[in-house]
Amino acid sequence: MYKACITGIGSYVPEHVLTNADLERMVETSDEWIVTRTGISERRIAAPWQATSDLAYHAAEAAIAHAGLTADQIDMIIVATSTPDHPFPPVACQLQHRLGCRHIPAYDLGATCVGFLSALETAAQFIATGKHKHILVVGADTLSRVTDYTDRTTCILFSDGAGAFLLSRQEEGRDQGILHTATHADGAHFPHLYVPGGGSRHPQPVAPDTKAKIVMDGRKIFKLAVTSMAQTVRETIQAAGIDASDIDWLIPHQANQRIIDAVAEQLAFPPEKVISTVKHYGNNSAATIPLAVDQAVRDGRIRRGDTLLLVAFGGGLVWGSILLTY
Ligand code: COA
């Protein structure tokens, strides 16, 4: 069995910044309320001409360059997204064509905000068995397209962005890579966070009483998020036979600073070892974790050899964690 390690990382966020002051003009809210309840000050929103594949392309290009590879060396592409450009084709196929990759396998994986971790877990299996050597894993979402900007309980949270890892077979003599993965689902919780319309149950154009926008029970999701993320971190630490103090960086899904703080507190994890980008980027779903890792690698906090614990939850309900050495 081969170990899969990260050889390249990239991310992309659209230029347009939607601030709390902008939202104050759109719904009945305040900067003070949003910052206190979520920790979010601003978020990035895709331009009208941009779709998920456009964001994914920029992040993918950066990750391939960071790895020092060329597009024709990639053996497979997996894109985690809940907001593809179209119901089909997959965003991954658009990416394969635009990057100029060979006729490699390319498909999307939908596991909402855990999608990037599920895609990493899947890619790691293909590398472990020796089937593929270099796999491009992208998390990209344009949640602004499924956000109701008249609903103050949701529009303050969501945003757009993309992040990518180039996952490669570990070279001889190097001790890096994915050490443990754990992902879970409980479909019983689906009504607490979902998009009612726009799928095959209520296709477009949707009936006036059925929204093609996010519907959420914020309080319920908050509690589920904290308990599920703390549980899967404990499970991964135990399965890997390590101590929490062996982890250099905890990189949680960026949904709400209060959720991040509550998870760290439950695990007695020092706040200075938790990476957070939610203040400036909000929740861009499958993109939050690779975006946060990319920023921390580029600003020098995360270094080669550091142990990272990635943890996420999302609509489904889905949750999971991945332990790796960068
Ligand atoms: N501005 C001002 N007031 C707001 C508001 C806003 N944007 N949104 C809601 N409120 C009001 C509510 O109407 C409520 O008023 P009431 O007491 O008169 O009924 C009050 O603020 C408290 O609402 P509540 O829902 O209890 O707030 P909260 O502390 O739970 O924070 C969330 C709301 C949405 C920020 C929080 O529940 C959350 O982040 N949940 C998780 C959501 C999430 O992460 N989803 C994505 C998962 S991947």
Descriptive report:
- By secondary structure, the chain is of the alpha/beta class.
- It has two domains: 2-171, Thiolase/Chalcone synthase (Peroxisomal Thiolase, Chain A, domain 1, 3-Layer(aba) Sandwich), CATH 3.40.47.10; 177-325, Peroxisomal Thiolase, Chain A, domain 1, CATH 3.40.47.10.
- Helix content is 31%, strand content 24%.
- It contains nine helices and 13 strands.
- The strands form four sheets. It has a five-stranded mixed sheet, sandwiched between helices. It has a four-stranded mixed sheet with strand order 8-13-12-11, with helices on both faces.
- Strand 4 (76-80), helix 4 and strand 5 (106-109) form a beta-alpha-beta unit.
- Helix 3 (52-67) packs across helix 4 and helix 6 (218-240) packs parallel to helix 7.
- The chain starts with a strand and ends with a strand.
- The model has no long low-confidence stretch (mean pLDDT 96).
- Coenzyme A (COA) binds at residues 29, 33, 37-38, 113, 152-153, 156-157, 193, 216, 218-219, 221-222, 225, 255-256, 283, 314.
Short description:
It contains nine helices and 13 strands. It has 326 residues and is α/β, with parallel strands linked by helices. Helix 3 crosses helix 4 and helix 6 packs parallel to helix 7.
Q: SSE layout and pairings?
A:
Layout: E1 4-12, E2 16-19, H1 20-24, H2 31-38, E3 42-45, H3 52-67, E4 76-80, H4 91-99, E5 106-109, H5 115-128, E6 134-142, E7 160-169, E8 177-185, E9 193-194, E10 215-216, H6 218-240, E11 249-252, H7 257-266, H8 278-281, H9 288-298, E12 307-314, E13 318-325
Parallel strand pairs: 4-5, 4-6, 11-12
Antiparallel strand pairs: 1-7, 2-3, 6-7, 8-13, 9-10, 12-13
Bound molecules: coenzyme A.
Residues 29, 33, 37-38, 113, 152-153, 156-157, 193, 216, 218-219, 221-222, 225, 255-256, 283, 314 line the site of coenzyme A.
